[in-house]
Amino acid sequence: MGCYCFNTYDTYLFYHLMKKINLAVTGCLGRMGSQIIKSARADKRFKLVTITENKKTDKKIFGLKISTNNSEIFKKTNLIIDFTIPKCTMEILKIAVKLKKRVVIGTTGFTKREENLIQKYSKKIPILKAGNMSLGINLLMYLTEITSKSLGNTFLSKIFEIHHKYKKDYPSGTALMLGKGIAKGKNKDLYKIIGKKYLNRKTFPYGKKINFNSIREGEIIGEHEVKFSSGKEIITLNHEAFDRALYSEGALTAGKWLMTKKPGLYSMRDLMNFK
Asked: Which residue numbers are catalytic?
């Protein structure tokens, strides 16, 4: 009877794929932080050990005390999932680098200087950064890019998105990421081909640049649609979100994937093995 002998890397992978992941969630009282905690408690791979906010509070979540971000409380974690604000994220990354902890970043709105610092930190620890953790949305972004590249300049494009009435910014960050996909497919800079940004319009036109239309109503979680038109035919790519859990589950999937990675800056595109 034969036997299989594990080499060092096999053993490393087996260990990290089977062991519990001690998880820290920052921004735990936020909408996404709360959802990640809920999803993590339902996933047997994770053990929630640390939850933090940027201000002191006496509140507890599932018996866990909410801490502020400091080196001591992150020592027992394997993975940090961060949905906060850029200033907090940068503080957390400094600690993570010192302690050699993996970090999944869902925070958006970084300056160019902060983006450069994240790149620098990723040379020391594995970091996965994504503006949207939905596997479906990331597939839509990929399809948008390759469609734009395939169609070339003979088709005009526009982007429609709809979110709940409490969302103030428009277009959404995801809509702009889809715009970047169109621009990349044409080998152009998005900010040179952004057209008009409409709000709550029933209809809106195509243009020589990419036009956006944003709807804010009800409790809608999110819908994004990309259209390409030649004037003779229209191609439509669409994604609808029905449950916020898809974002938190995407972040947890990213965390599991990151556990076996070497230092570097990764994206959901890497996780999904898109070229």
From this structure: 163, 167
Cα–Cα dist 223/229, whole Å: 20
Closest CA to 180 of 142, 139, 206, 136: 142
CA distances from 12 to 6, 259, 260, 262, 275 (A): 9, 10, 8, 12, 26
38: part of which helix (H) or strand (E)?
A: helix 31-41
How many whole angstroms separate alpha carbon 160 and alpha carbon 211? 9
Distances in Å between the Cα of 218 and the Cα atoms of 35, 162, 221, 245 are 20, 10, 9, 19
70 pLDDT more than 50: yes
Looking from the CA of 176 toward its CB, the CA atoms found within 13 Å total: 12
Q: What is the pLDDT of residues 173-195, one digit of tens each?
A: 889 999 999 999 999 999 899 99
Per-residue H/E/C for 59-78: CEECCEEEECCCHHHHCCCC
* 73-98: burial string, b at 16+ Cβ within 10 Å, e else: bbeebbbbbbbbebebbbbbbebbbe
CA 275 – CA 269 distance, rounded (Å): 8
Task: Give pLDDT, residue 13.
Answer: 52
Q: Which residues contact 244 (CB under 8 A, 6 or more apart)?
A: 31, 32, 35, 221
CA pair distance 67, 157, nearest whole angstrom: 47
d(Cα 20, Cα 262) in Å, to the nearest integer?
Answer: 19
Strand-pair partners of 236: 227
11: closest CA among 273, 260, 264, 263?
A: 260
Q: Where do the domains of the chain lie, and which CATH numbers do they carry?
A: 8-133+245-271 (3.40.50.720), 135-241 (3.30.360.10)
- Asked if pLDDT for residue 275 goes beyond 80, the answer is no
What single string gives the DSSP state of each residue in 91-146? HHHHHHHHHT-EEEE------HHHHHHHHHHTTTSEEEE-S---HHHHHHHHHHHH
